[in-house]
């Protein structure tokens, strides 16, 4: 077993009720040694329960807990209550994965994005909850002996502009820069922004059907694009292997299609 995954680990994973988050929970769960813990967060309680069952079916020797949370209305107190019961002395690795996110209003082109309330709502989920949970995570698990690793699930759209997906592009770019600054300020942290590639999630389908820009809709549904579609299991395996290999600079980004 790889050294990275051969330690007692506490994993905190957002957006864990479906899609990439659910698959990540299962794939990571397979690798964790006994006395490890996975803490799942999402809004959908039924989805969280299903994820827990799937993880425990693969590995019954780990503890799986879940919390139904609304990340549009999160704050430090809420996150502190979730991590408070965790005994930080038990673990050798703390892993936080920010997977939750939304695409934003696809009816707005960049010139139409003039509503502060719309912006604030979008950033509450896609940036503010991320920085808040990260702060609580680092404060709670401030150990000299255990490794602290933070994974930001990002996108090609953090570095590549797409029409009508402005909120998403700005949100992902903001998150990446936050984690680059965090890595610079904290050399002991292991920080990765991972771009999973074009996976057929609800978000991908939403863009392909509802983007205000016809070219984007066609691009997301074209036959040429379909050859680049990534299976959710494959991208989760790539992330697991990337963390194990540690062939990236802390604060940097890795894409599914990177060699």
- The number of helices is 9
Main sheet record: 7 strands, parallel
Q: What is the end-to-end distance?
A: 22 Å
What gross morphology would you assign?
globular
Mean pLDDT: 94
Helix content: 40-55%
Key descriptive features of the protein:
single chain, 259 residues, alpha/beta, 7-stranded parallel beta sheet, 9 helices, 7 strands, 44% helix
Outline the structure in words.
The protein has 259 residues and is of the alpha/beta class. Helix content is 44%, strand content 16%. The protein contains nine helices and seven strands. Strands 3-2-1-4-5-6-7 form a seven-stranded parallel sheet, with helices on both faces.
Condensed summary:
The chain is of the alpha/beta class. It contains nine helices and seven strands, in the order E-H-E-H-E-H-E-H-E-H-E-H-H-H-H-E.
Topology, pairings included?
Layout: E1 9-14, H1 19-31, E2 37-42, H2 45-58, E3 63-68, H3 76-83, E4 93-98, H4 116-140, E5 147-153, H5 166-185, E6 190-195, H6 202-210, H7 214-221, H8 223-226, H9 232-245, E7 252-255
Parallel strand pairs: 1-2, 1-4, 2-3, 4-5, 5-6, 6-7
Helix pairs in contact: 1-2, 1-9, 3-4, 4-5, 6-7
């Amino acid at each position: 077993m790889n050294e990275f995954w051969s330690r007692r680990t506490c994993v905190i994973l957002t957006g864990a009720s479906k899609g990439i988050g659910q698959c990540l929970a299962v794939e990571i769960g397979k690798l964790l040694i006994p006395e490890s813990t996975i803490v799942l967060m999402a809004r959908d309680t039924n989805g969280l329960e299903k994820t827990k069952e799937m993880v425990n079916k693969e590995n019954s020797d780990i503890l799986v807990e879940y919390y139904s949370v609304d990340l549009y209305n999160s704050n430090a107190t809420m996150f502190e209550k979730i991590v408070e019961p965790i005994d930080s002395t038990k673990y050798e690795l703390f892993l936080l994965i920010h997977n939750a996110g939304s695409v934003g209003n696809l009816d707005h082109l960049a010139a139409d994005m003039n509503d502060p309330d719309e912006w604030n709502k979008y950033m509450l989920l896609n940036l503010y909850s991320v920085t808040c949970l990260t702060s609580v995570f680092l404060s709670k698990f401030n150990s000299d002996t255990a490794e602290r690793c933070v994974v930001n699930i990002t996108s090609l759209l953090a570095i590549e502009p797409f029409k009508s997906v402005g909120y998403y592009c700005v949100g992902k770019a903001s998150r990446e820069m936050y984690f680059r600054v965090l890595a610079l300020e904290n050399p002991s942290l292991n920080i990765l922004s991972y771009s999973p590639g074009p996976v057929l999630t609800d978000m991908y389908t939403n863009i392909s059907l509802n983007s205000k820009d016809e070219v984007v809709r066609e691009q997301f549904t074209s036959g040429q694009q379909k050859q680049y579609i990534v299976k959710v299991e494959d991208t989760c395996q790539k992330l697991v292997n990337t963390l194990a290999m540690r062939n990236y600079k802390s604060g940097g980004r890795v894409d599914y299609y990177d060699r």
